[in-house]
Amino acid sequence: xxxxxxxxxxxxxxxxxxxxxxxxxxxxxxxxxxxxxxxxxxxxxxxxxxxxxxxxxxxxxxxxxxxxxxxxxxxxxxxxxxxxxxxxxxxxxxxxxxxxxxxxxxxxxxxxxxxxxxxxxxxxxxxxxxxxxxxxxxxxxxxxxxxxxxxxxxxxxxxxxxxxxxxxxxxxxxxxxxxxxxxxxxxxxxxxxxxxxxxxxxxxxxxxxxxxxxxxxxxxxxxxxxxxxxxxxxxxxxxxxxxxxxxxxxxxxxxxxxxxxxxxxxxxxxxxxxxxxxxxxxxxxxxxxxxxxxxxxxxxxxxxxxxxxxxxxxxxxxxxxxxxxxxxxxxxxxxxxxxxxxxxx
Length: 345
What we know:
This protein is an alpha/beta fold. The protein folds into two domains: 2-123 and 273-296, 3-Layer(aba) Sandwich (Rossmann fold); 124-264 and 302-331, 2-Layer Sandwich (Dihydrodipicolinate Reductase, domain 2). It is built from ten helices and 15 strands. The protein has helices at 13-18, 36-46, 55-62, 76-86, 101-113, 128-138, 156-170, 267-287, 297-316, 330-338, and strands at residues 2-6, 27-32, 50-52, 66-69, 90-93, 117-120, 145-152, 178-184, 201-207, 213-219, 235-240, 243-248, 251-256, 259-264, 320-321. It has a nine-stranded mixed beta sheet. Helix 4 packs parallel to helix 5, helix 7 (156-170) crosses helix 9 (297-316) and helix 9 packs parallel to helix 10 (330-338). It is globular, with a radius of gyration of 20 Å.
């Protein structure tokens, strides 16, 4: 497979490229970036010959099979449309998929009418230890799952969808039926080049319609379970009728019928393998229509609809039935409501 990256610089793109050291069926052949110095430094570092400041030109000249989309969320749809027009078979898109109702609906409409294969870059799903725990829970080793508790140190736009995806991974893709959410803090709603707008903190109780619940904590109020920086504080705990499973970015526990196993792992080592396996799973889907990627766009739309439900619930102070049809301008409403002395208009 001929592969490419849109958006290379001092960010997630390095991990995307390093994963190709562990990938057999694909080669990183081209990269694009708007900043020439970032483009040259990255391409030199990873020995990539195809270098472009316009990703559309890259599509036209290189004709890649798979493209990693490492851009601000405000241009997701634009890239999807251009990829479809150029005949690109598949995209792996950085999270978050969208920011608010307007772009969520546009992407949902695109997905309903275009065959482009899209997955979201939740590489944690494929990290070796977490993937093993997911499989052991799916095999029934902790009994019937009753409750999931998950959290992340950054806000809903930066890490919240990672956390929702983790909840779904341990619930065998059960569909959320209701959410009751709270939000606070407006610093994360200020305009920045990355456009990752979200309240500083959010909490939610998510119901699945069959006596199963999950709780989500995101941002400043979430537990600190990592090292070095706020970005390492992701965790998920799953409770069943026979025991529990608990994963963080640095360790794990598994309790079955009173017997507890535990251990540690190094996040960077796990992450590079997870990134590679996630990419290989996309190759599986590209060559076999039945091998749908577990991080596919359809599932990501469910998770982001839950994020929008949290925003509606926090603003309206009520539980929200899912899936919801969100109103426009939710981010503006949150800015107004959460600013010091603010109110929702």
